[in-house]
Design brief:
By secondary structure, this protein is mainly β. The protein is built from two helices and 14 strands. The radius of gyration is 28 Å and the shape is flat.
Length: 309
């Protein structure tokens, strides 16, 4: 019996020592984790992202007023990573969207959205809320774009018009950056280079006229411009759970028709239902006479399922 009690005491003491050791390890690991989090915050970086899926659907069956059943979905990706200390600010944002529409009587699926964009503004403190800046913007699309029509028999046909990296736009240059806060920013870049890239297959077709495809000359794959670039960003809460985001980009090419100012304006309205669901509205208009003689517009509205990270 005595030996049994000694064994129990030995095992109990061993368990206590092991538990104390485990507890110390847990405390140590927790302290290390807190230190990593503190370092992440202290080093000036902040990051956030959202993945959104917008869904639209309509169905008609023996509906005398008319209508066509359709199904549409848009996947969106929005990721921001920013750096800031006393003298430096660096704002980065990646936007990607892709959407498809399928209607009951159509022969082809059609895109409702197709975009990849990267924006970066690096600033060094000048005075007040002003920074000496360097901007970079890159835009393109993911998949082939088509112009749709009908043949002599009324059958729907499509003609390839754009593709991945055709067009693609790269804009960069020095300037001045005014940043009130993360929700209100302006940038002015008076010596900005803009390059438009296309697939030379589109500019090598028989009878091609210089500049008719996104301003690129025959048998070329790139157009260079030098001009004035301005951008603005403003985000505010319209009411509880409703926020409005405005993005504006302007560009004037010194080398060719500087009076024709390229414009790209987009407004995003997000009406939050709960942590996961929201109603999303996007309207975008573009004016670029090298691409199209008039305004291009895009509008998307739907119920969104959101995942934040």
């Amino acid at each position: 019996m005595k030996n049994f009690l000694l064994c129990v005491a030995f095992l109990a003491s061993t368990a206590i020592i092991q538990a104390q050791s485990t507890e110390k390890d847990l405390i140590k690991k927790s302290e290390e984790a807190v230190k990593v989090i503190s370092d992440t915050t202290a080093n000036g970086w902040s990051k956030k992202g959202t993945i959104t899926f917008l869904f639209n659907q309509s169905t008609f069956n023996n509906w005398l007023a008319g209508g066509e059943s359709s199904l549409a979905g848009t996947l969106g990706f929005n990721y921001e990573f920013h750096y800031k200390n006393d003298n430096t600010t660096w704002d980065n944002r990646i936007l990607a969207n892709y959407g498809l529409l399928q209607t009951k009587n159509a022969d082809f699926e059609k895109k409702t959205d197709d975009r990849f964009e990267y924006n970066s503004i690096y600033g060094k403190k000048a005075f007040g809320n002003w920074y000496y800046s360097l901007i970079l913007n890159f835009r393109t699309q993911f998949t082939t774009g088509y112009i749709y029509g009908k043949d002599a028999n009324g059958v729907e046909i499509r003609t390839e018009n754009t593709s991945f990296f055709s067009p693609a736009y790269l804009t960069f240059g020095p300037g001045l950056y005014w940043k009130k806060n993360d929700n209100l920013k302006l940038n002015f870049a008076p010596l900005t280079s803009k390059m438009t890239f296309v697939n030379s297959d589109y500019t090598s077709l028989p009878g091609y006229v210089d500049g008719s495809y996104f301003g690129v000359d025959a048998n070329k794959s790139m157009r260079y411009e030098l001009g004035f670039y301005a951008s603005a960003y403003y985000k505010f809460n319209l009411m509880k759970n409703v926020n409005v985001e405005n993005l504006l980009n302007l560009y004037s090419n010194y080398l060719d028709k500087p009076e024709n100012v390229d414009l790209d304006y987009q407004i995003n309205i997000v009406m939050t239902i709960n942590k996961t669901l929201s109603a999303n509205f996007t309207f975008q208009t573009i004016y670029d006479d090298n691409a199209f003689q008039g305004f291009q517009t895009r509008q998307v509205f739907g119920l969104g399922v959101n995942y934040g990270f």
